[in-house]
Amino acid sequence: DAKTTQPPSMDCAEGRAANLPCNHSTISGNEYVYWYRQIHSQGPQYIIHGLKNNETNEMASLIITEDRKSSTLILPHATLRDTAVYYCIVRLRSSNDYKLSFGAGTTVTVRA
Amino acid sequence: DAGVIQSPRHEVTEMGQEVTLRCKPISGHNSLFWYRQTMMRGLELLIYFNNNVPIDDSGMPEDRFSAKMPNASFSTLKIQPSEPRDSAVYFCASAPGPNQETQYFGPGTRLLVL
Asked: What's the CA gap between A107 and B12, in Å, rounded?
């Protein structure tokens, strides 16, 4: 698996956009970028994933650079309930790549 | 649609006792995973089932741990005998198919072994 690098923590103001960076400079051409988050005392929650193109869903947007060496998860209007640890994970989508390697993630604190 | 269901949510037991954790995956999902989370080691994959068959159990710590999936809608993780170092949060996750699509996690079981 390609490794990812995320800042250990960041603060965000409620109602503002939260931009979470992730570096994955050794990503291979067929590896996807996945984002999960874990709210305190809950299980990890899938947010979004992408390969090359930018993606958007009801939770967030994912911006992947053209060289695919980094990406940014955008929470458009952060709320207090978005306070969580956010994990950026790079993986294949094949029967041989089933492990989700959760690193330390970024602890995001949304402040009122 | 119900998500992954785990029981019990909390378990406190004494060293040496048998512990059984239960998981009901999302209906229609063919892949099931058991993870363990501790402060020291983070989230670790213990075992992975596909179509009820164990595919990879290399993460199972030792012989005290065993997991079964008797049918598509139920799995158990058993620890016998339990030890204090087994204290952790145990998560079950399921995914739709064999190509490792998105994994959906349950709420976890918090295990404390005294």
From this structure: 29
